[in-house]
Amino acid sequence: MDQTVGVDQTDPNPATQAPEAVPMTEQQSADLARAQEAGWTNQVAFDYDAFQSMGGNNDNWHGAGQVYEWRDEYGDVAPRVPELEAILFGGEFQMRRGEHLANLELQVTIEGAMKPKPFREFQEAGLHPVVMENINLAHYARPTPIQCYVIPAVNMGLDVVGVSQTGSGKTAAYLIPIVSKLMGKARRVQGPRPDINDPGSMVRAEPLVVIVVPTRELAMQIFDEARRMCYRSMLRPCVAYGGLPMRITREELGKGCDVLIATPGRLGDLMDKPHILTMSRVKYTVIDEADEMLHSDWEDELRKIMSGGDTNDDADHTFLMFSATFPKDLRSMAKDYMRDDFVRIRIGRAGSTHKNITQNVIEVDRDRKRDAIYDLLFSMEPGRTFIFCNSKITVDLLDDFLYNRGLPTTSIHSDRNQREREDAMRAFRTGKTPILIATGVSARGWDIMAVRHVINYDLPSTMYGGITEYVHRIGRTGRIGHRGLATSFYDPEKDEGLAQDLVNVLVECDCDVPDFLSHLTPEDTKNINFDDNSEDEGDGGASLDDTNGHHDAEDTGANGFTNGINGDHHGADASAAPAAEEGFTRDAGEQGFTPDAAGAYSAAW
Ligand SMILES: Nc1ncnc2c1ncn2[C@@H]1O[C@H](COP(=O)(O)OP(=O)(O)OP(=O)(O)O)[C@@H](O)[C@H]1O
Q1: C-beta separation of 443 from 476 below 8 A
Q2: What are the chain's domains?
Q3: Where is the Helicase ATP-binding domain positioned along the sequence (predicted)?
Q4: pTM for this structure?
Q5: 125 in contact with ligand 1, CB cutoff 6 A
C-alpha cells in the first residue's frame, strides 16, 4: 500500500515513518490541502515492511502493559503509584460518561430462582474499599443499570447471563464484584509468585478468574479495565492473545497471574502447557461477547475451557456470560454449562440499540460508494470515525483510496500481524489517525473515547451477521451516555434481506426511515415483531427473549418470569416464582426500581 503522503516526522515509532517520501502529484497535493483545510489531522504513514521486521519489544506490546505489583511489605494498605495511576485512569484510556444517560433503555427483565436485589449507588454494594477507590479514580459516579443487577448477583454467588446494550458498562459489571470479592481474601487465595531472591525465577500461572473474549483488541481493552480495578491490590491481571509473542505471554504469566484475560485460541494452547498454566483453581469463568464466540468456530475451544483440561469442576466455580445480543445457540450453551439456578438479567430488548445514536440510511449504488464516502467525510466536522466493510480486501482498497485522497486513515483486519493491529488501534485511540476502517469482527466490543461517527460502507448482510452485527457496529459510537451518529450505505441490489430488520430498529429508536424503505414501516410501531431467533425454545426458554419488542412486560412482567421457566430442568421451577417475584418487587421498590403499569421494571440512573 502506498502510504507515503504527508509523513509525520515527529513520530518516534519506526514503523510509522515511511522509508522515503514519494513525490506527490498535483492532485494529491490538492486533496491533502483540502483535507487539512477541512480540519482533518496530518496523515501518518505506515511502513508495513518495518512492521513485519520489528521484533518484540516488551514496552510496545499491549500485553506487557504495566500492572500494579504488590509487595509483601505493604501490609494492609498498598501505596499509590502516581505514574501508573496517570496511565490507567487518565488520558486516552478512560472514557467519561456523557450527558444523555436517560436515553439508554432501562427496562429490566430478570429470570431465575433467586433474584438479585438491585442497588443504586456503589456505596450500597458492600464493595472492598480499594475497589471503591478505584471506581472513584475511574470517575464512575453511579452504577449503570446492568451493574445495579449483576454486582449483587455475583455477590450472591449466582451464575449470570447478562444482556444489555452496547456501551452500557458490562465489563465493569462483572469485574467490580469479582475483584472485590477476591480482594477480601487475596492473601489466602492469591496464586504463586516468583522468588524475589531469584530474579530469573518464574511461576506457573494459577488464575482465579478467566475472562474469554473473541478478539485480541477486546482482550487488551478488558485487560486495561482489570488493571484499573486490580490497582493497589494483591491480584495480578495478565492478558494472553494470539499474535502476542509466546515469550512475552510466558514472561508475564510467570510473574504470577490471578486474573487472566484471553482469546480462546491462545488460552487453548496454554491449557496444553500445564507447566505454564493450570485452570484448576479458577473460581470465575466469564465469557464476554458470548454470541460472537459461538459464531466463530470456537466451539471446541470453548467446551475445553468450560469443562475440559484441568478446569476446576467444583461447585464453587461461577460462570458468567455477557453480550448485547442473545441468540438461541447462546441460550442452549448457558443451559449446558451453568448451574440450574442461573439468573438471566436483561436490560432492554436483547439486540436493541438506543436513542443516543442517530441512525441514517442512504441509498448508494455499489459503484458510487467510494465517492459517496469521500463526500460524506467532508460533509461534517472531522472527528473519530469508524468505517466498516464486509471484507478484508474492501478494507484495504478503501484505506488506500481515502489515504491517497489526503485523509488520515488506518485500517485493521485479521490478516494484519499483531504489531500492525496494535499500532492501528493505538493510533485511532489517541486520535492520531482519526479514521479507522475495519471488518466488523475485528472491531467487536471496542470502547474508544469520542467516536463521533460510524459508517457502514457495507451493511452487514445475513452472511455477515445481519442486524445483530449492525447493532454491535453502530454501538462503537454513542457510548455510556454520549450521542453518536451512524450512517449506512444501502445497496439496493444486495441489502434487501436486511431491510425489514433495519427499518424495525430505526423505528424502535425514533430514527427517520428513508423514503425508499418507508413501505416497510410496521403498522403498529409500538408493537414491532422482532425476529430474535427464539422460536425453537421448546422448553419455554423463549421468555428469555421477548418476541414483542418493548412489550416484554406481557411475558415477564406480570409475574416476573412466567412462561419458560416451568419444567426447564436448568431454570427455576414454577413453585419458585411467587416467592422470588414477591421478594423482587419489594426489593425493587425499596431501591427505587419501580414496576411500570404493565409490571415490568425500570431502572433510573
Ligand atoms: N458506572 C459507570 N459510569 C461511567 N462510565 C462507566 C461506568 N461503567 C463503565 N463505564 C465506562 O463505559 C464504557 C463502556 O463500557 P463497556 O465497554 O464495558 O461496555 P459494554 O456494555 O461491554 O459494550 P459492548 O457491548 O459494546 O462491548 C467504558 O469506557 C467504561 O469505562
Answers
A1: yes
A2: 90-347 (3.40.50.300)
A3: 151-344
A4: 0.77
A5: no
